[in-house]
Here is the input.
Amino acid sequence: MWTVDRPAARTDRRPPPLNAPVAFRLRAALGLGPEQVAHTLRVSYGLPYVTPALVAAWERGSAAPSHPELVALAGVLWCSPGELIGRPRTLREHRVARGLAPEDVARTVGHELQAYLRMEETDRWRGSERQSAALARLLGLSLADVITVTGREDRLAEMLRGAVTTRWQAYVRPVSGIVPLERRRLEEALHRLHRDYRGQMAATLSRGGGHGDAGDSGREFLERIVEHFWTTVGEQGR
Here is the structure.
């Protein structure tokens, strides 16, 4: 009987977010079975421990491929690693999605390789403005991606929650220190988020929901506040 065991040393601390349905569809479109994929990974990509059961586990989402395994799987399925990854969030995931080696990124942005690898390991980008711009160009990062990979998303979420639950005007300057947007655009985004949050709370109560229901609705809004922010900013730019 097949097992899904593999050497512990080959398992990443944070495996990439495989888009399992896409992996399944790509394999099926090529007319390959898990047995054929596993065989190619063993023979052509130097992964002797890969079994059909492991491939099936990846596709079910019950196991996640390491970065080297994901890159090899992309080769077998004739696609880019980025096509197999859900929305990249970390610096490493963005690099893998672009099919780049750490050496490529370090050289392009002007960092020593070991220093760059430490940034990937700690999820904290330490670069100058010029280096950050080079990183964004190389990895095709949006402003939202840059905020995330530079470790500023949690702080942004904190500021946005304060803006929608109290006086949004007081948070324009702090948020602008994290997100370099034109002031009027930022003011409009915070004002709209504040209005949407208040409106959602009021609507829940007017529909007969109790304060508990309103609290649940408000908490859900606040938990996704960064997502709401970028959606609002994107709609303003259309």
In short: The CA atoms of residues 101 and 129 lie 22 Å apart. The chain has 15 helices and no strands.
